Amino acid sequence: MRLRPSSLKTSFARYVTPSPLSTATMPTCGPCKLSFLHFRPLPVTIFTAIIYLALFIPLLIIHYVPPSPPPNGSLKESIGVDLEDTWRTLAAITKKYHPYNSRANDHVRSFLVDKINHIIGKNGNNKTEVIEDNFVNVLYTGRATVKIYFESLNVIVKVQGTGDFEGTVGDVLVNAHYDSVSTAPGATDDGVAVVTVLGLIDYFTQPNNTPRRDMYFLLNNGEEDYLNGAMAFTEHPLAKNCRIFLNLEGAGAGGRATLFRSTDAEVTKFFKKSKYPFGSSLSGDAFKRGFIRSQTDYIIFDGELGMRGLDVAFWQPRARYHTQWDSMAFTSINSLWHMFETSLSSLNGMAHDGGYTFVQGSGRKHTGVWFDMFGRGFAIFQIEDMFIWTMCLLTITPFFIFGLFYLLARSDKLYLLASSPKSNGPLPPRLELAGCKGFWRPFVAIIFSTSAVVGTALLIAKVNPMIMYSSQEAIWICLISLWIVTSWFSLKVANWWRPSATARTWSIGWISLIAWILLVVNAVAEDRLDVGGMYFTIFYYMATALALFFSLFDLFFLPPTSHIYDSISHVDPLDDDDHRSLIAPSVDHTNNLSPDEEESEPPNEHTSLLRDSSNLGRGRHIGRRPNSHGSLSIGAASSLPTLENNEDDEPSCSSSTLCASRQYPGEQYWSRYLPRYTWILQALILIPVPVIITAQIALIVGTSIAQTGADGNNPLTAYILYSVFTILILLPLQPFLHRWTRHIPLFLFFVFVGTLLYLLLAFPFSWNNPLKVYFAQTVDLKTGENKVHLVGVSKYIKGIVENNIPSSWAPGTDLECKDDPLRLGLQRCSWPGKMPDVVPGHEWKKWVSVNSTYVGKSGELKKAKLEVRAKNTRACRVNFKKAPGHLVRRVDIFDPTGKGKTIKHKNEGKVDGDSVEQVRLWSREWSRGWDVVFEYSHNDAEGSPEGFVECLWSDANDGGVKALDEVKSYLPQWAVVSKLEDGLVIGELGFVVDELKKA
């Protein structure tokens, strides 16, 4: 069909010439340059990428790098403490391994007492008292079937305060343990804490720094063996005076000291005074819910004494924890400064607090929710307040959102749900608004990218699960790259196939819905479990809801949908073919042709039907693409042309104001009325707060779990957590990804491929992140048979022994590998090893002697006595064989010299139900032994009670444990050894109580 030019103009005007109102709104445009701040690919890509980099870089620095101390001279002037001398003291106490059961432990204790006396003398403080606890012997119940007898070797320093209070307010306790494990010098576990305590004693004994409250500085001995030192302190007369505590610990080997946990929000406020606070209440929740199985002295002061306080500790990297690399070479004076500054700031608040909040029975405790902000600020909330806050957000915020939807609907501007404009008459054929076109694509993109990330994480967990041990950073990079690439690709395809001006708003809406669901989970956790570790969901939802609010507010700038109908003439509509030909290719239907333009180039039979069609460029095929119903949307019909084959360019006007009234190529016509700058505000609301809060937790969790596979933990849990936090960190980016250029996603695709190949193929351990294996040696003191045991990850431990340990190569050596009964998830390999020489000058037969004697009946029970004597040790265990006829019900321990008095702890007494299966014995004196008196139920038909004694030797300093020295010498460089039990060498000797031989 051929149309006359005049007919073309008339027909065109009938359908698409704007009404006078819209013409006034849309002035004539000529060529110009767009503003860089419009929602266009280049500015969106640059701006959002910069936001993420600006957040990630400082978070990573804070996470890995402890702050540097001021010059030592200025420290001595300001606080009177010589940090360099404190650092040198650390070298003095970490020369050797010094577990409780070692001679080096005695030397460390003597050194610390001398150092404390020197500090007190230097400061001229005659009101400070040094107490060496050599008299408390405590008997208490460990697990239900285990009794523990321990003799204290604690050192207590009492610093008297001014005491200007009316009544009792409670004293302050500062605790650290000076024993190490038998396989580590203990630089950070707990050497840095010990020298920090010395520095604090130096500070508070100076005349100008006298505290208001009395302060007790406890250096306990025996923490590594079931927290025995702290338990012994609970029976010391001074313990009842203390109401506030600060426990200093080490569960890593360097880095920053973090606030592990606190008893309540009220006491946590003291930590806020630190200049460099670091930590999250999520770690405390992990302890509370049993996800972290190891413990610190914190549980003794909190649980046994009912005190209120803080647990501050080093926590990374775990690969060096309890190994020979827990040394000064792998920590720094910066780490020492961070623990010291944090402790001093907290203690100043505690020691000078004049309130009565912490008096026993006074003041209510509130569970605290807390976290640091970039390592400089610290936020504290009560969980009750957080719950109220959570419920308000869950219930009130949706009403505001629905209220906006209602106002938009009332004003006829709810384009999000509009498919066709409202009208009072017939609409032109195949006309739509396509506002809901972008509804499903964010959800589909989230599902697609989440599936890709989780699937990749599970693939790594299947093929090379231990790679996270040394390469957790590569895991983060791999998963982050994959999520961005898959999300960008899916959104870009959707935007190419069905362009939508509402894509950003729908994406923010979906993210807000996900955050709302997470907030519901948080509310349940706060209310039912009393944990606030999901506090990030509160800030996450607040940011997403606020961004959604502003995104909906943008729609108020649009004209009512009925104006689309009002701007169209209703005279003599063309048939479908004419309409499709005329309405689809409009280039600039807001411009009226001037007479000059018409006369300058009269149309003829060669003139195109499409006005200015030479400038359609890439926008042309987009503008003519049919929608899902086979019709053409008005948005597509009004696509603006582009001057070049570049999606960042567009015809523009002589001023940025006029340029702002253009829509993006291919998107709906009405989107030209949307504000062009609010996307920046939405990005600043949506991205920073969720990313800061969530990424901080992700780094803490990721670092905490990365090396737990060596302890037998299932790596699958870790990879799931990596995936979850990857998604949470990047979700705020999704509303802007469809505008990203291809350059960053293309680069990240190659990054993903490279890191994935590395994670699947690389060897998971290195000298800097060595695999931890666990050593023990048992000797049968009746036959002389000895076995060396090495425990580790089943995939590697057998190869380590077979390929590296010479004693396992001996002819006829039987290497036995099976699941370990002590460390679930690991495998134990055993073989005959070198005989230890732990009692110099004595053959193995004379290391231990056990004499069992039947005493007689005691009511309904029988009584027997065991005399246990062992050379060159102060630790043994008595194990009773569990038999129906002879169940041990009560145990008493006596010092054979008669000098010490045993104090039975409050939870010690007759066993109801289960019998006593083991008694652990610890002596402060060498080779002295114990007298164990036990009462047992009897059944004459069942024979006599029996069991075996295990005595422990833990001193690895003088070459007595030859098998351990061999393992250290021949382990591959990517592995390191730690202790498996309390003792490195365990000598076993059986006993039977002969009831016919009465004492």
From TrEMBL:
The keyword Transmembrane applies. Its cofactor is Zn(2+). GO terms for biological process: proteolysis. Signal peptide: none annotated. GO terms for molecular function: metal ion binding; metalloexopeptidase activity. It comes from Orbilia blumenaviensis. Residues 618-627 have a biased composition (Basic residues). This is Peptide hydrolase.
